[in-house]
Amino acid sequence: MFYELFLAIRYLKPRKNAVSLITLTSIIGVTLGVTVLMVVMAVMSGFTGEMKKKLIETQSHFQIFSRRGAMPEYEIKHILANLKQNNASGTPVIQSPVLVQYTVTTASGQKIQRLDTRNMLFAAGQEELQKHLDLQNYLKAGSLRLGSSFEDDAHYAVISTYMAERWQLDIGDKFLVHSTKHLTDLVKFNAAGGVELNDNSSAYLPAEFTVSGIYALGKSDFDQAVFFVGMDDATDLFDLPWGSASAIYGWGPDPFDQEQLLSKLAISMPGYSIVGWEDANRNFLEVLAVEKTMMFFLLIFIVLVAAFSITNTLITSVYQKTREIGLLKALGCSDNAVMRIFVLQGFLVGFIGSLSGTCLGYLVIRFRQNIVDFASMLSGQDLFPKKFYFFDQLPAEIIPSDVAFIVICSIVLCTVGALLPALRAARLQSSEALRYE
Known about the structure:
The chain has 2 domains: 2-54 and 294-431, no CATH class; 60-280, no CATH class. The protein is built from 18 helices and 13 strands. It has helices at residues 2-12, 18-58, 73-85, 126-133, 161-167, 180-186, 220-225, 231-237, 259-268, 277-280, 282-320, 322-330, 335-366, 368-379, 386-389, 400-417, 419-426, 430-433, and strands spanning 62-66, 89-105, 111-123, 139-142, 147-149, 154-160, 174-179, 187-189, 195-197, 207-215, 226-229, 247-251, 272-276. A 6-stranded mixed beta barrel has the order 2-3-11-6-10-7, surrounded by 4 helices. Helix 11 packs parallel to helix 16 (400-417). The relative contact order is 0.19.
């Protein structure tokens, strides 16, 4: 085995011929393939990890819903006590889609009333928002002030930077909120298929809120849709009984290992639906996992092309070294030993390429943001806009198991690529190889 390895290394040494150039090209191909695979897998893993963090930051670890609708105060107290017994905590919330009416000023100075339907009202206690969402640290302007004020008869809300820009609002400005329930109660479908006013409907006034703060969590879909109000204001808006809630947001010791906790809660509270954050976002997380897998199988073709290049190189090498192969067999070298020499060549090309590709991939990941900034400067545009990708910097996380899998696949492909020329070399007869020597 040792002399086969010695000969394989000797055959790989650079010489001034076309085979050496093709061998070098094959190694470079494997290097680039491993580098690209490693960088893409690290970015996908980093993106998935950051998305999970963002989801946990903007959501609870789990949510509890009553199958009977809104939960009255006594049910909320019972649920919170149950959570405390299981080393968890929770807070009642009210969340519902709403319509926002706001005023914009055109270039000519004309004021126009508009409706925005892309909004989710979220109500919770001010202390709970600060404790669990840490909303205070994400404020860009104003303060975390929610609820009603008897001094100025105002109802305060915290909106996002996207909303402030879209609605042309600043601290102290006002906007109106329409409950979808009130709007649907106003009209009904008649027998002819048209729409008419409901006979039992009554006029209502939308809730008026004053902007007290402007936040930016950094998660685009959340920032574009969610604004915060006080619990009492939400209760009045949706005509709910005082002290009731639409759901309980809960937090456990470990959001990534809460199956046992959720099972206990489900047994102790049979009349409620309990949804973990992973279940609530299952489709999104599955899409991320599928994208990562698909990217791997697409980019592995780079290494596959390099493996075909190795096959071509070794076939040429076998024809050039026909005399040496004949001499080895004449000296008693077996067919399997000759085969191992060329298989080891493919293995060494894969090993060297994978090793250099791993090192290069680590450097690219280490300085990824510098590379992105330089490419953005050359192209004159932001390659990763925050409003689309949620992050200020390109995320990346090197997972050792991913790197090991990439390296193993690359080495295996290169070794398999060497089998065909190795079989050709093993079948050479020493008499035929040395006939003209």
